[in-house]
Amino acid sequence: MPASYTPILSADLAETIRALLRDTPPATDALLVGLAESVRDRHGHDHPRHEDLYCANLASWSGERTGPLLARLLAECDRTERRRSRLVALQNDAMNIRGALSPDGRPRRVPMELGEELLPAVEWLLDQAQQLTALLGTLHAVRNLMRHGDLPEQIHQELTDLLADLPI
Predict the structure, then answer these.
(1) C-alpha span between 156 and 147 (Å, rounded)
(2) CA distance 127 to 123
(3) pTM of the full structure
């Protein structure tokens, strides 16, 4: 089954927030720290029974900075979604490679079990390709020797029979 994911924010919600924020720049690290300090300070001071001007002031200060905070949240959500999409695509590619190398109901095409790591199978396949390329070069050399060399008839016939089924 292909890998999938659920976005942090739905596309509609993210678009609504973007439209409301317009061109608000994302929050800086310093602003994030300042907002966290404000939350701490609002919870940490003695709350009078009458109007709490300290909390009202902090709420106002925080409210003015909420736009950049939301813009940064959207930027981080977008970045996370791009990375998650890329990860899902890579996981699906890896699953397809595993399926090609070890198809259901058929013999495995590589000599090792296929777990999370595919590199051992790829290295084995590259080694096999290199060995086959070298063997093909040797077979071409033998064929040329047969065409132009002075071989005993029995060896010539045995090589001809061996090479007859090869696609060279």
Answers:
(1) 9
(2) 6
(3) 0.56
- 22-63 pLDDT, tens per residue? 888 888 889 888 888 887 877 777 777 788 887 788 777 777
Tokens (6 digits) for 31 = 């602003």
Q: Which residue stretches of the chain have pLDDT < 70? A: 1-5, 167-168
From CA 19, how far away is CA 23, in angstroms rounded?
9
Do 119 and 101 contact (CB within 8 A), yes or no? Answer: no
Residues 6+ apart with CB under 8 A from 26: 68, 71, 72, 74, 75
The residue length of the chain stands at 168
Give the pLDDT of residue 2.
62
CA 132 to chain centre: 32
Residue type, 122: V
d(CA 69, CA 63): 10
| Rounded CA separation 74/123 (Å) | 41
Instruction: Give yes or no for a contact between 93 and 3, defined as CB atoms under 8 angstroms apart.
Output: no
**How many CA atoms are closer than 13 Å to the CA of 98, on its beta-carbon side?**
14
